[in-house]
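Let's sit down with a protein and look at its sequence and fold side by side. Please make up or recall a protein chain and show it to me in full. Label the sequence line and the structure token line clearly, so we can match residues to local backbone shapes. Go ahead whenever you are ready, and we will take it from there.
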Amino acid sequence: MNQQTIEVVVLENGQAPPTGTTTPPRKPKWHDTINYIGNPDNFCRQNREKYGPCFKTGVFGGTTVFVGSAKAIQMAFNGDLKYTEIALPPTTMDMFGPYSLFQRPDLHRQRKTALGPGLTGRALDGYTPQIDETIGRGLQDWSTPSSIALYPAVEKICFDVLVPLLLGVSLNDSDRATFEGLPVSSKAELKALYKTYFDGFYGLLKWKSRFTAYGRGLKARAALIDFMRAVICRRWVEGPINPTADFLSMMLAGQQENPDGVFSDDLIENQCLLQLWASHYEISALVCSLIYQLGRHPQVVQRLLEEQAEVMGIQSNVNRFEPEHLKQMLFLEATIKETLRILPPSTTANRRLTKSVVLDGVLYEKGWVLIAEPRIANMMADHFHKPELFDPDRFGPERGEGKMYQFIPFGGGVHACLGAQMTMIVTKLFASHLLRLFDWKLTGSAQFVQFPLRKIKDDYQIDIVRRV
């Protein structure tokens, strides 16, 4: 869908909407926030079935309109600096900090353009051997036959992948020297800080106290910035900086080349903090969801194994997957996309209308918040054939489902996820090694944490057996 195919009528202050316009259905209710946070899937499904893909709620206070149709999502994504602004809760904005991409919309494009090369294209191809080796080594530690707690086992490997990839350091609990000069003494301590930090994102009270999630989150954020500052100091001391080695090196090289440019100390520290946080939680959750879905659909596993053998050829038992191998694994990519469609990790956009707009005869009023919700868009029959089915072929070239604004796993518009390509690469490599090494069976239906990020619960186990 092309951006020019919709006509958004922007109303100036005091301008009356065209005759005959309506507003989205449903009245906001006082308990909407509780119901949404408690079970976003049910909240979205029930209201979509009753009111359609766009409806009003009282989620997070005021009037919040959930949008799931492609046109309304396009309207929400593409209004920045014209008729929308970021509308995350104040506690969330504080956790992101003043140098995140969500702050200073006038500087967003400049910052994102500068950061992008470190997480896309040739840079990712250069990171692939290191990612591949770390995942392969981590999976070798999975002893079989046995039952494993899925999320903790996956999260451990993802963390070991992402810290060197993003920060250029390795943290090893068995080698205390790796923590020298850093204000944390173990990976567990660092992860605990991140959990406390994340818990503060949606703290109900904006009160700087150790008795509130918000207050504890701010304290953890300050400790994490201190950690990033110490890592950066270590990297300068170690020198010289290779801009293609990792994400932090790219930023440090940019600062070295232009000290007065976009890469200030504050921006670098903040981006290290946020990129490790977002990547770790999102990728760990996605890999677990993929493993769970494959356990439910053995016929998909068989096709993935056949694709892997075809791509790798006589090297079908090889221990290493190169970027060119991954690019040929189209069914694997489609399977990951279908996992993102069925089990989207989170909402993708919160925008507040700075002006009233009309789209297709529907009025969205100034001051309302728009939430582009994958749980609605991804389950619409107008967007996907038999959306209730897990069917990776829908993303194949023959069917071509999942068009822009209909499939929004990584958001869209100027605020599309910076780490989307990295997420796909890490997930592809994890899946490729897993398929080569193991068979697995599920132990019943999994329960998921639903908010603010969907992830399989820590106690869910799978049974694994090493392949012969």
